[in-house]
Amino acid sequence: MPEVDDGTTPSPRKRADARRNEETLLNAAAAVFTTHGVNAPVREIATSAGVGVGTIYRHFPRRADLVVAVYRHQVETLAGDAERLRATVGSPVAALMQWMDRFVDFLVTKHGLASALRSDDSGFEALHAYFLDRLVPACASLLSAAVESGEIRHDVDALTLMHAAGNLCIGVEAGGDTAYDAHRMVGLLIAGLRQPPLLGEGGAGPGRPPTG
Q: Which of 205, 200, 99, 172 is nearest to 142 (CA)?
């Protein structure tokens, strides 16, 4: 028997439109958070998204709800990027490096999120576990492919690599050195994992004295 639309269930097109509208809102909020932190005025987010303030509050009654939604949306995007890069980038190590670049972007644009995560708001409690559950397997899939291809050393795991990248991003968060480039630092980290290590990228290499 064919399904009858009685007006109580959104049609597939309406559901798709709603998803696109929410994605637009989340992307706008993420851009504003990147510039002004997670405490940016809601009106600024609404203006960037091209919606009214009431629309934001209808979707996300509390600021914490919006912050959590933005964070989860970006985690999902980053997790999906791993699969897309594996399918479209010819070299496994190039795919890994491109994903790590996006991971660095994700880490260095979370102004104010660290302090929010340390708050007593229950909405933030599961975010760290969610981050690990989604992104460690994504990174591991790319890292394993690079190891299997012989391009990356086998004695490193995804969680360790992500922790190392996170530590290299601390220089950006501290804000003390405007010349600090987290992307370059993580690039040097990956170069050091190359098999064999790339000479001239991040170190002198075996059997080669340092220059200078």
A: 99
The answer on pLDDT for 198 being more than 90 is no
Burial state string for 65-76 with b = 16 or more CB within 10 A and e = fewer than 16: ebbbbbbbbbbe
Please state, in angstroms and as integers, the Cα–Cα distance from residue 41 to each residue in 32, 46, 68, 126, 135, following that order: 9, 9, 16, 25, 29
What does the alpha-carbon distance between residue 179 and residue 185 come to, in Å, rounded to a whole number? 12
pLDDT in tens, 36-66: 888 889 999 999 999 999 999 999 998 888 9
In angstroms, the CA 63 to CA 47 distance is 16
The pLDDT of residue 22 is 86
Domain 10-61 has CATH 1.10.1790.10: no
- Alpha carbons 212 and 210: distance in angstroms, whole number: 7
Q: Where are the domains of the chain?
A: 10-61, 62-212
CATH number attached to the domain at 62-212: 1.10.357.10
- Residue pair 78/102 in contact (Cβ under 8 Å)? The answer is yes
**pTM (2 decimals)?**
0.76
Tokens, residue 191: 């170069």
- Check if the beta carbon of residue 109 is closer than 8 Å to that of residue 33: yes
